[in-house]
Amino acid sequence: MRHYHHKMNKIAAIGFVLFLVISVSWMNQMPLAYWEGSLDSLASQYRRPIEEWPTPVIDAGVPWEEFSSLPKVDSHYFAVMESPAVVLGKYLFFDPILSGSNQISCSSCHNPQTSWADKNTVPVGNDHLEGTRNTPSLLNVYARKTLFWDGRANNLEEQALAPIEAHHEMNMELSKLIPKLKAIPAYNKLFIAAFGDEDYAMPEVMKALAAFQRTLASRRSRFDEFIEGNYNALSDQEIQGLHLFRTKARCMNCHSGKFFTDDAFHNVGLTYYKRKYEDLGRYLVTNDPADIGKFRTPSLRDVMNTDPWMHNGLFWDMTGLLNMYNSGMQMNSATPEQKAADPNYPVTDPLMKKLNLSKTEIQSIVAFLHSITATKYRMRRPESLPR
């Protein structure tokens, strides 16, 4: 009997050790949100300087930056807005004279009333033709490393040409644009003031447009105030959303830094390869099969003002969009058989994984996204245009 009890105690001890090993292993693999306690406890971990926040859960090898706040409005802002190149650029941006029909301006798609996007699934341009990709907001475009969803432009000056020329956008023959502008004395004076030369051409048009667009910046949000020490700026639910964003929801693998973007390109599973809505994304720029279906990570600053979302404007509801990410988005990723048969068959980015977020957790993330969305600032259009 004594031997029996000794044996049973030994088995129980081994079982307990195995339980501890399995439990610790499980806890080490799970995001903090699974096991760190109440919302009050979670909030206390974030209502402190950002360098003391819990470390985000980032996959190995993924570059990221800690969040940082936007600056307060610079006292030089108004002087910048009155500089000759910006004044000229603003007129050009809002003037339909840049289009072949004299009916479409840059602001037709990048509307100051809708956070410099257009609230359409895809834009509608010349002859009421639809584009194929959603209009991105121009907010903070000065900070982007590349432009367009596929990154085909490296700066704002280069970017300006494409929509002016495109038949389904502004449909303007560049050889005719400069004579149109030079026929207007008021524009000639503006170009001389901006560039000191009456013999201007397309490079000056592009520089002026770029100068104006570089002034389009997000206003500070409640999240910026929170980072800087106003710990009542976010609710407990929003803080839970912030924590999930950094951990279980895996958002910070792509959306980090001051502007909530890595400025990189990812295939999140919306390529529609060899289907009606196929868009091969960055591959059309690089011709690199590894880029098939990849699109630039958008900034999430003011995200709740810039719907619909994704490169194709597919989602009008943020909960629906998060449900998509929650699924892991692997349904369109190439199987080994498909990849063997077609080496160009797109593979969804391995950063996309099933998240197992609850409805309550998704609601908290939506709440957090509202906290990084600032009050809408609606720049006034020019009361009149140079004529």
From TrEMBL:
It is found in: Periplasm. InterPro entries: Cyt_c-like_dom, Cyt_c-like_dom_sf, Cytochrome_c_Peroxidase/MauG, Di-haem_cyt_c_peroxidsae. Its main location: periplasm. Residues 84-217, 236-373 form the Cytochrome c domain. GO terms for cellular component: periplasmic space. It comes from the Bacteria. Keywords: Electron transport, Heme, Iron, Metal-binding, Oxidoreductase, Periplasm, Peroxidase, Signal, Transport. Pathway: One-carbon metabolism; methylamine degradation. One of its GO terms (molecular function) is electron transfer activity. PROSITE patterns: CYTC. Involved in methylamine metabolism. Essential for the maturation of the beta subunit of MADH, presumably via a step in the biosynthesis of tryptophan tryptophylquinone (TTQ), the cofactor of MADH. This is Methylamine utilization protein MauG. It comes from Sphingobacterium paludis. The lineage of its organism: Bacteria, Pseudomonadati, Bacteroidota, Sphingobacteriia, Sphingobacteriales.
